[in-house]
Amino acid sequence: IRVNTVSPGPIEFPGGSWEMIQGAMPDFYKSIKAQMPMGRLGAPDEVARSVVFLASPASSYSTGVNLVIDGGFTKRVQF
Q1: Which residues contact 36 (CB under 8 A, 6 or more apart)?
Q2: Are the beta carbons of 42 and 8 closer than 8 angstroms?
Q3: In degrees, to the nearest 5, what angle opens at C-alpha 72 toward C-alphas 9 and 77?
Q4: For the chain, how long is the longest CA-to-CA vector?
Q5: CA separation (Å) from 37 to 53, 61, 62?
Q6: I want to staple 41 with a disulfide (CB 3.0 to 4.6 A). Which of 2, 10, 45, 66 is the partner?
Q7: pTM of the entire structure?
Q8: SS3 content of the chain, % helix, strand, coil (to 5)
Q9: CA nearest 68: which of 1, 2, 11, 13?
């Protein structure tokens, strides 16, 4: 039995919470975006591709993985 998980960071999409935050608290939104090493928030398809990888035979030897998909937002190395 394989058990893996995906932990997404700030993900932006139409109608999502980050769109609301951008409209209601533009300074906060800009401050979060400025902290992103990649200079942007993530997209749903970027998380989806990671989930597909973990569910595929390509990751058949992976178990106990917490795959962080956050564009470096957490600023750490996972051991």
Answers
A1: 10, 71, 72, 73
A2: yes
A3: 110
A4: 45
A5: 23, 30, 27
A6: 10
A7: 0.85
A8: 40, 15, 45
A9: 11
